[in-house]
Write a structure and sequence with these properties.
One of its GO terms (molecular function) is protein-L-histidine N-tele-methyltransferase activity. The chain is an alpha/beta fold. The protein has one domain: 3-Layer(aba) Sandwich (Rossmann fold), CATH 3.40.50. It contains nine helices and ten strands. The strands form two sheets. Strands 1-6-5-4-7-8-10-9 form an eight-stranded mixed β-sheet, with helices on both faces. A two-stranded antiparallel sheet has the order 2-3. Helix 3 runs parallel beside helix 5 and helix 5 packs parallel to helix 6. It is globular, with a radius of gyration of 21 Å. The N terminus is likely disordered.
């Protein structure tokens, strides 16, 4: 229980300027690869009571783990700290990867339903940046991508959720036919850590970069744009889904578009928007000729 002291200071005591607290910057997590265990490579079955289903189309479904069902004793300090603070974000420690945000579903539906964007994934190399549960990367596998890299800040998110969701959807055998899943041929990798470290340690470039709900913090815009410049192939496409405004944290799409314009390397256009409820948009970003 907190106690508040209302004792008045001794007026005879010398008045001193309060000391300014020393600012400490949290060290950002280095990029690390998370490998699929042998069991996960064979495919896992998740208790249906712990699953949600995202119907991207009638024929394309993505099952994903209900993170509320994760036992508290299995969670690490970063995620437990966020839960105790009732927060989706602790800068430098936890970036909200266990929660599936609305814009992920917006972008997933566009990928699966729109023929123009669906064909982008045929035999393509894809980066799911800030992947969280991995729904967008899993969809890319199902749509025919040849390689998909899943990246999230927190290693624990990848280990506890992303790899299991991938294994559940894309590995093993079909329950009805008994045949090997047709979506298991794509090469996949999983990386945790900060974006700058990912840029330094992973050499690949990608045909498509998918990212959802990653522009909430203006302090990360320069880092994000630098990653786009170094990781997108010259003819590649970035699909970025976001809320128009992020209240309380400072980020918004117009501010991000201004950062893109100031940098001068990319052009962008809004290809989808939702005006009802919380305003949300999807941008298509490409390198300028």
């Amino acid at each position: 229980m907190f106690k508040f002291s209302f004792n008045l200071p001794d007026e005879s005591a010398e008045t001193k300027e309060p000391e300014k607290p020393t600012e400490t910057k949290t060290a950002e997590y280095e990029c690390e690869e998370v490998l699929l265990s042998e069991d996960l490579q064979k495919g896992v079955t998740i208790n249906p009571d712990h699953l949600h289903v995202f119907p991207a189309t009638v024929d394309i479904l993505v099952e994903y783990l209900n993170c509320v069902s994760l036992p508290k004793e299995e969670l690490g300090l970063d995620i437990l700290s966020a839960e105790m603070d009732h927060s989706d974000l602790i800068p430098g420690r936890y970036e909200g990867g266990l929660k599936v945000w609305e814009c992920t579903f917006d972008l997933g539906e566009l990928m699966a339903e729109n023929d123009e964007y669906k064909k982008l994934f045929e035999k393509a190399s894809v980066l799911d940046l800030g992947c969280g549960s991995g729904i967008l990367g899993i969809l890319a596998v199902k749509l025919g991508a040849s390689k998909v890299v899943f990246q999230d800040y927190n290693r624990e998110v990848l280990e506890k959720v992303t790899v299991k969701n991938y294994s559940c959807n894309c590995r093993g055998t079909d329950a009805e036919s008994g045949e090997e899943s047709s979506s298991s041929d794509a090469e996949v990798q999983f990386f945790s850590g900060d974006w700058s470290s990912f840029v330094d340690k992973v050499e690949d470039q990608y045909d498509v970069i998918l990212t959802s709900e990653t522009i909430y913090s203006p302090s990360n815009y320069a880092k994000l744009i630098d990653l786009f410049k170094k990781k997108l192939k010259p003819s590649g496409v970035i699909l970025l889904a976001a809320k128009t405004y992020y209240f309380g944290v400072g980020g918004n799409l117009r501010l991000f578009e201004k950062a893109l314009e100031t940098d001068g390397y990319f052009s962008s256009e809004t290809i989808w928007e939702c005006e009802s409820g919380v305003k949300r948009e999807i941008l298509k970003i490409k390198s300028k000729p």
